[in-house]
């Protein structure tokens, strides 16, 4: 990876998900056309659905469309043209597919911008003009989420600050064991959830002490501070929170819940202290950061800065640009990949998912990727995110195509 760059750790947004959602929701989530083009709507575990519960996120994908082409998505309340609550401009790959992308983060909760209700997802592009609908519903199963001391949803925390959780739809007046784990991609019925049972870190899992709380008569989990939180070695590492009811120490789908199933429950980050926000961005389709590609590859971008950088329900533009040894404040951004992409970032931590930004075949050369946070078409020092030359990584090339 590039010299002088802050490390970036795999982080697919932060959603609050009850694992019971693996059983899906009723109804169809795909608009299937006779020409094979399909708009697919999913929960953030990637399962097709026409309804999601509060604290979940909504994903979209396309199949069978024109290859290497932009498609524009807009989300509004059903039957209305405004307000726009979600949007994206995504690029199809060489096979004519747009990979799943979160278009609505953390829906339905009181602090969100997408309250309970029905929403239209409209997609337009060459040969395609389709609308699908998704319902945002109150959760019907147990759920747990990270929050601040007042119970408001919070996805990122200052490195060293206390962590709080809350939730609901549990058994009434029940004992709950709350245990943090290093993020894992999926939780399964029967998983060991005892404290210190996480084998994913060398040297054991010291510090993952369970906190014991109790639900009230309505099955709600009051705001609870974890008794002894842990620190991962690198800011930006993600974590999940498991809420375990009797029988304890085994994850039970239907009674237990997790904040972070296919997505991450939360992350610790640190304030930025540099002039430029310099991070790894260029990656492959699996999110593995790399600096060298072949002409037959596709280039993706993945945002997960370990620094704390807050955008409230915002959208950002992604540019692939010719390399510059040092980007200066006000430099114009001229995309060389066929046009920039645009989508939303996770409120509170600027995290995203993996997005195709340069479909192959690729012309040889040196390139940088810039995330235009304020969407003004120029590089803004200390605001935009750069994978390339900057004051902190002078001369560093974002990625090279050979």
Characterise this structure.
The chain is mainly β. It has three domains: 19-137, Sandwich (Immunoglobulin-like); 143-271, Immunoglobulin-like; 274-402, Sandwich (Immunoglobulin-like). It has no helices and 29 strands. The strands form six sheets. Strands 11, 13, 14, 16, 17, 18 and 23 form a seven-stranded mixed beta sheet that branches. Strands 19, 21, 24, 25, 27, 28 and 29 form a seven-stranded mixed beta sheet that branches. It has a five-stranded mixed beta sheet with strand order 3-9-8-5-6, with no helix packed on it. Mean pLDDT is 81; it is low at 1-30 and 201-207.
CATH topology descriptor of the largest domain: Immunoglobulin-like
Give the strand content: 35-45%
Q: What's the overall geometry? A: globular
In whole angstroms, the N-to-C terminal distance is: 17 Å
- By DSSP (H or I, 4+ residues per run), the number of helices equals 0
Portion in helices? under 10%
Q: What's the architecture of the largest domain in CATH terms? A: Sandwich
Report the radius of gyration as a whole number of Å.
21 Å
Regions with little confidence, pLDDT below 50 for 5+ residues = 1-30, 201-207
């Amino acid at each position: 990876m590039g010299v002088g760059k802050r490390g970036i750790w795999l982080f697919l947004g932060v959603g609050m998900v009850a694992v019971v959602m693996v059983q899906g929701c009723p109804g169809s989530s795909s608009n299937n056309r006779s020409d094979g083009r399909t708009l697919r709507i999913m929960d953030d575990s990637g399962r097709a659905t026409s309804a999601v519960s509060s604290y979940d996120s909504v994903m979209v994908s396309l199949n069978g469309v024109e290859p290497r082409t932009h498609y524009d998505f807009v989300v509004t309340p059903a039957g209305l043209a405004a307000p726009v609550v979600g949007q994206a401009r995504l690029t199809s790959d060489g096979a004519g597919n747009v990979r799943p992308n979160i278009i609505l983060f953390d829906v339905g909760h009181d602090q969100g911008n997408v309250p309970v209700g029905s929403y239209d997802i409209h997609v337009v592009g060459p040969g395609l003009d389709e609308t699908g609908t998704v319902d945002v519903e109150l959760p019907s199963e147990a759920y747990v989420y990270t929050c601040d001391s007042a119970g408001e949803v919070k996805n990122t925390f200052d490195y060293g600050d206390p962590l709080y959780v809350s939730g609901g739809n549990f058994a009434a007046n029940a004992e709950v064991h709350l245990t943090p784990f290093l993020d894992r991609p999926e939780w399964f019925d029967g998983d060991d959830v005892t404290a210190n049972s996480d084998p994913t870190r060398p040297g054991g899992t010291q510090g993952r002490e369970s906190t014991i709380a109790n639900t009230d008569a309505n099955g709600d989990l009051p705001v609870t501070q974890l008794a002894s939180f842990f620190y991962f070695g690198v800011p930006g590492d993600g974590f999940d929170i498991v809420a375990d009811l009797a029988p304890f120490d085994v994850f039970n789908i239907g009674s237990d819940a997790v904040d972070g199933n296919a997505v991450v429950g939360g992350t610790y980050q640190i304030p930025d202290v540099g002039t430029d926000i310099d991070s790894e961005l260029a990656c492959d389709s699996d999110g593995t950061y790399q600096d060298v590609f072949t002409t037959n590859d596709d280039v993706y971008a993945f945002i997960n800065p370990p620094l704390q950088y807050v955008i409230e329900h915002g959208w950002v533009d992604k540019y692939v640009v010719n390399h510059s040894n040092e980007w200066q404040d006000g430099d114009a951004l001229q995309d060389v990949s066929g046009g920039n992409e645009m989508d939303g970032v996770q409120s509170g931590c600027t995290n995203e998912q993996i997005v195709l930004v340069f479909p192959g075949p690729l012309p040889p050369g040196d390139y940088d990727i810039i995330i235009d946070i304020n969407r003004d078409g120029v590089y803004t020092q200390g605001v935009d995110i750069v994978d390339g030359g900057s004051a902190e990584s002078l001369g560093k090339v974002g990625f090279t195509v050979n």
